[in-house]
Amino acid sequence: MKELALAGNPNSGKTSLFNILTGSSQHVGNWPGVTVEKKSGLFRKNKDIIIQDLPGIYSLSPYTSEEVISRNYLLSGNADGILDVVDATNLERNLYLSLQLIETGILVVLALNMSDVVVVEKQGKWIDTTKLSYQLGVPVVATSALKKTGIDQVMRQALREIERTDETIYPIYDSHFEAALSEIIRILGNAVPQKQARFYAIKLFERDKELSEQLVLSDFQKTEIEDAIRITEEIYTEDAETIVVNARYEFIESAVKMALQADVNQLSLSDKIDRIVTNRYLALPIFAVVMWLVYFLSIQTIGTMGTDWTNDILFGEWIPNGVKSLLEQLAVADWLQSLIIDRIIAGCGAVLGFVPQIFVLFICLGILEDIGYMSRIAFVMDRIFRRFGLSGKSFIPMLISTGCGVPGVMASRTIENERDRRITIMTTTFMPCSAKLPIISLIAGAFFPSNIWIAPSAYFVGMGAIVLSGIALKKTAILNCPQKVRQKILVKGFSSVLHRTKSF
């Protein structure tokens, strides 16, 4: 029996292709020790081929449980080949995973899914699979899981690759980076399988703690590897992880530029918008305007109208008056009436009063997320925020927290990485919001009436606490615990807004 791993980004058409290839001969279970769904099946046209559907991932770095599962499976040696499903409409992003799959040393066939859509979305452009195959060093076959075209061709190519015995052709990066990788491979020697040596070298260069702990290396080997990394960092004046990311994307940019057949001066509408919203000088002003609109709609106008109605009418008149009439008819004691109306109902009203604001906030954030703006501003802010242990997506919750901390903390749910989300929640609470500022002013006026700098200092102390706590949490091991594993449930559109509001 041969085993073929089906890998790819989420929403790349991987599951659709898996269903076509296996038909009804599927087995659904869980990966060992976790609750992440495990799907495998026999190829309909050859029952000697097991197709293993890996979780949808963006990379082989151990940031999520799905990425850890996929990486451990590929390094276990069980897979005889990889069928990499690539969304042709998001080629650059998908190829980032493809390069890492090739680096594992396992034979890869690239299924260029939705390639027919590219011609429409890219205004007449098309992808030359021959040139892309030449650049990547792996077979590339154009497919469409929706139209069920190219499926037989890609599987024939995959079955041929499984039987191959020659060595994998790896992507070649910048000379200084390649020199560092060669040195690390030399230092590793026989500590890792030869065909996986390049993958381990890159991960060690990135200072991947989880992978380095799995290897049995002497202190001398570890020192030599660290020296090679440090020297390379000095050459590039960048940290190791950034060097790897830049090297991969430079390679991808070159490969796509050669494979995408079109007038280089012709930009799609999406490209034109990207050039504006990610522009070095325009990105932050545009973002400020967008977030002001989100804040204005959710906190100041529509959301506040709902909150005022909830507090003043629903929990201010209707419910208390109705409950009071009922309690009086039942001859309930005055103290119990006061407890129910003034404490329980009023307390619930104080919390539920935020629901309209949260609801409108998630509608706005959901729209920004669906049109792709959130990922673009996160890209712009990520380099700055990473210095303080935060994600680029942390900026939005913090900005919202200047108005109110509750919707700010709730907005952190849009951050996919659990560790980044936890750090954001912990640091966002230090943000001086509109409820804290009157308290700061009151204390400053009462105890330090002659010192005008106390109140502003308290504000900036809160900002400083965010920076310091972010750096401290980045260094600590408290948040490095394995991410809780749960099955991914795809919730789109309005149902996502309802779900998040219900969670609040």
Automatic annotation (TrEMBL):
Role summary: Probable transporter of a GTP-driven Fe(2+) uptake system.
Principal place of residence: membrane
Family note: Belongs to the TRAFAC class TrmE-Era-EngA-EngB-Septin-like GTPase superfamily. FeoB GTPase (TC 9.A.8) family.
Subcellular location: Cell inner membrane; Cell membrane
Gene that encodes the chain: feoB
Entry binding sites for Mg(2+) 2: 19, 23
Topological type in the membrane: Multi-pass membrane protein
Signal sequence annotation: none
InterPro entries associated with the record: Fe2_transport_prot-B, FeoB_Cyto, FeoB_GTPase, G_FEOB_dom, Gate_dom, P-loop_NTPase
A GO molecular-function annotation: GTP binding
Presence of the UniProt keyword Transport in the record: yes
Residue sites binding GTP per the record: 8-15, 33-37, 53-56, 113-116
Binding site for Mg(2+) 1: 22
Listed transmembrane segments: 281-299, 344-368, 388-411, 453-473
Domain FeoB-type G: 1-164
Keywords from the UniProt entry: Cell inner membrane, Cell membrane, GTP-binding, Ion transport, Iron, Iron transport, Magnesium, Membrane, Metal-binding, Nucleotide-binding, Transmembrane, Transmembrane helix, Transport
UniProt-recorded name of the protein: Ferrous iron transport protein B
